[in-house]
Amino acid sequence: MDIRQDLGERVFNALSDDQRLSLKDVVCKGLCMDTRLLEPEDLYVCVGAKECEEALCTQAFEKGASAIVVIRGCEEQGSFDKMEGHGGLDKKKIPVVTIKEDYTVLGQMAESFYKRRPSLGMAVTGTNGKTSVSFFIAQMLSRLGYPTLVTGTLGDFVFIPEMITWERGEISLTSPDVFSLYKTLQRAYDVGIKVYVMEASSHGLTQGRLGELLLNVVGVTNVSPEHLDYHESMEAYVEAKCLLFSSHVLDSGKAVINKEDLYCETFIKALKGKKSLTYGLKDVDICLIDMEPRGGGVDLSFRIKEILYTQHLKMLGRYQGLNVLCALGMVKAVLESGRETIQDEDIADTFPFLVPPQGRMEFVGKTLLGGAVYVDYAHTPDAYEVVLKQIGAHAAKKLIVLFGCGGDRDSQKRPLLGEIASRYSDVVYLTDDNPRTENPELIRKSIRQGMKNLQCVVREVPDRKVAIEEAVGNLEEGDILLLLGKGHETYQKIGNKSFPHSDVAIAKAALNEASKRVQKGQGNE
Question: Do residues 198 and 125 make contact, with C-beta atoms less than 8 angstroms apart?
Fold first, then answer.
């Protein structure tokens, strides 16, 4: 391998002459920093806790890594002497080198090795709505004739205009690691994709998972308290989001910003003079005027500059209307960046064809008695407030909410979610949601702390499958049941294990059973 060309100047300069020599004849088919994703003849880059290095590097060797580079800030080569012969690792057969660098070197390595990517790039950040906006962008662009890659929480997808899934393995991160991202972008380029859009999480931004990418367009949906167990303060969380605007926008690029968000001016300042486009409810470039319910969806009226448009959306909620307008602004900006002559009217004409992504206010079905079931990934206080307030307006009778809270995560939000759910709902099913290593009973008790002195009916059913079946079985005409928190997830994490679980699949089965009972004349008691 050509070390200087493949791994970049920083890595080359950090290597000793002996290290360069040991890597000289290595065959490197790819870069990988996750042993679960490693393929034969990948170069494995080990970053993380020192106590895990031996086990990880042994795994990489056994899976066929061509060489190992350990990124560590203080040790020199020789730190792996103790590993020779362990688990089959033998430095006579595979080069193992350690360099003194921080994680930011990974971006340069990715940039040096994976040199090809689609010409037009976008990223969207925010506490809620990133997945919806990125999927709306891809649907709009594909209908306009631009095949588009989406990478984010749900995986990697190409819209052309039908959806084709690209497997990303078992990893479930909003922002994939920097090598996986660059590898996906190169693969997209090689099959002719010219536009990509990604979700940018606060974790991904602070950990450098976007590498050295400079984007044509970035966008932000909203910011509310989340991941404070990681960022420790709201200021640090917002600062992490701002990295997208300060470090990843081309000089000729543009940002699309929610004028209704409290931190709007903070994001504009982070752009350092680059152009922005605003959307929201007033004094903006793209303005939401009205949303009138019709036929299981809404008629969305909005204004771009001075021109008024009305289009039908097959979805509910003002927040989804704002997400669609964010996507419109980003599509408009990226096409202008690529000097494409698509009219605003043409973009707006794609609205009736948009559908929410999996697990985002996903309509599951109705009982024969007329009760509707939806699944949504909402898991923050702000998302609960928005979703329950707006969807409750569509319930002719009862709004029924089923939810729980994850274990080993931000515990401060639990009573807040309880209070919001009970304030807007007629019935709450309190159940489990990835309790992990925490006692699920104590998690539910913490949620209940926020549900005191409120009038809704609370039914505590620990087993989530049983809770869904009971909730669906009790639906009446005009009721809406919202299954919140898990969305697209297909597992339930209990202890250190993952068990198969899908809210959508369980709800569909329960709807079928409810239909059979009605057809047999049993109905609901």
Answer: no
